[in-house]
Amino acid sequence: MSQQQTLRQSVSYSGVGLHSGNRVTMSFHPAPPNTGIRFRRVDLEGKPEIEARVENVSQTNRSTTIAKGHAKIQTVEHVLATFTGFEIDNAFIELDANEPPIGDGSSREYCKLIEAAGIAPQNEKREIYKVTTPLQFESGESMISIFPHDKFKISCTSSDKSGRFSQFFSIEINAETWRHDIAHARTFCFFEEIEYLIKNGLIKGGSLENAVVIRDDAVLTTEPLRYPEEFVRHKILDIIGDLTLLGKPLLGHIVAVRPSHSTNCELARMIQQQMRKPLVAMQTFTPPPTPPSAEPKKQVGDGKAPPTSAPKELIDAFQQGGSLDNMQVMSILPHRYPFLMVDKVTKIEGNKVTAIKNVSINEPYFQGHFPGHPIMPGVMQLEAIAQVAGIQMLKQAENWGKLAYFMAAESVKWRKPVRPGDTLTIEVELTKSRGKIGKAKGICSVDGEPVSEAEVTFMLIDSGAMS
């Protein structure tokens, strides 16, 4: 097992963001062992940090965006791929805007930064995850799989919907192959997409200086293609960057056909679930310690009743508008798989709570809803709203340890289908709270577009009433 690595010194680079068009300065800084890769928004109050983790992915439309609380970073994949390519485990990435400078559309400029900074070994060991069983995710015409393998290998096929410029490339990724065979591959788009992208403000910083444009059978670029298969090599670059969100090095053979950021991130979530299985199994077969002199209590759900008083870190999160990870959510809600509809809470602000649910193809209801055309049932979105409303109600000290019963739903509207690979954002505002009864309005959205909404009513009861 090799050692963890960081940078020897800090380095900076300035430019414009591809999608936002914002002028931005980005700096790489060394970080202690076990820090991981963390982004820091120095232009925002408190300089909030966002860990490069798949749990923090908020959007995957044409690039990968991570967010935490009110802070977000767009188009993180090219930078993250560079750190994985150079086998750097720990670093702080500071930005004074919401998107890294795009450079020339590849990772070339980021490689120059790391080469200028130098790489420093650290005392802690690297924890490398080796995939144990095959995993696969399909969405439309995109497919991505991973198989057990002793190296980190990617085999990818790329083409447009009409099959133009179909390319295939297969490579084992290490520091040497990254620098010479992948890092210089530039982002690209098809000419017919440009009008839509410009009209929707999605490439405000785009130009032929930082992207390759394909028009019919012609390739528009300021220089010759850097590789015979530059397009598919850039797809591999994106896969490397998105899978960096696992938070640790990976061993496995990835096979992808027309991958997207959405499919890449969904595979990362599936690998993460596989990584957690041994821990879940250990927790399942290990009984919780019984406090001395305490009488055993009858419990419900998965046998873990919520505590009667909130831990200090949860109280702080509620009071300071912070976030709650999955374990903290489960310490509040009694729901468990397959009925827990909240993966994490990203923002707590007054009477409003924002949470996310990563919709995976592994959700059990997709087996019958509908085979060959999986769609998340609307009632599950309604349940997600109710659960987030319950978190909002249960954050009050006097309600801690109680259960929130879903009683009624009004003004329910389902607007668009939710499919595997989507990240469901659930925003809930508590509109009324009187005694044990609460009312809330909730909206579910995907990539910023509302997909459902409802007003829900619920009642709080003592958890002991379920004994």
SSE inventory with pairings:
Blueprint: E1 3-7, E2 11-16, E3 23-30, E4 37-41, E5 49-51, E6 57-59, E7 65-68, E8 71-73, H1 77-85, E9 91-95, H2 108-117, E10 119-125, E11 129-130, E12 135-139, E13 142-147, E14 152-158, E15 167-172, H3 175-182, E16 188-190, H4 191-199, E17 212-215, E18 218-220, H5 230-243, E19 250-257, H6 261-285, H7 312-319, H8 326-332, E20 344-349, E21 352-358, H9 378-394, E22 402-414, E23 423-434, E24 437-446, E25 449-462
Parallel strand pairs: 4-9, 11-19, 14-19, 16-17
Antiparallel strand pairs: 1-10, 2-3, 3-9, 4-5, 6-7, 7-8, 12-13, 13-19, 14-15, 17-18, 20-21, 21-23, 22-25, 23-24, 24-25
What would you note in describing this structure?
The structure is a single chain. This protein is of the alpha+beta class and 467 residues long. The protein has 2 domains: 3-277, Ribosomal Protein S5, domain 2 (2-Layer Sandwich); 312-466, Thiol Ester Dehydrase, Chain A (Roll). It has 9 helices and 25 strands. A hairpin with an 8-residue loop joins strand 14 and strand 15. The termini are far apart. The relative contact order is 0.12.
Notable features of this structure?
Thiol Ester Dehydrase, Chain A, Ribosomal Protein S5, domain 2, 23% helix, six-stranded mixed sheet, single chain, six-stranded antiparallel sheet, alpha+beta, 9 helices, 467 residues, 2 domains, globular
Describe the structure concisely for a colleague.
With 467 residues, this protein is an alpha+beta fold. It has helices at 77-85, 108-117, 175-182, 191-199, 230-243, 261-285, 312-319, 326-332, 378-394, and strands at residues 3-7, 11-16, 23-30, 37-41, 49-51, 57-59, 65-68, 71-73, 91-95, 119-125, 129-130, 135-139, 142-147, 152-158, 167-172, 188-190, 212-215, 218-220, 250-257, 344-349, 352-358, 402-414, 423-434, 437-446, 449-462.
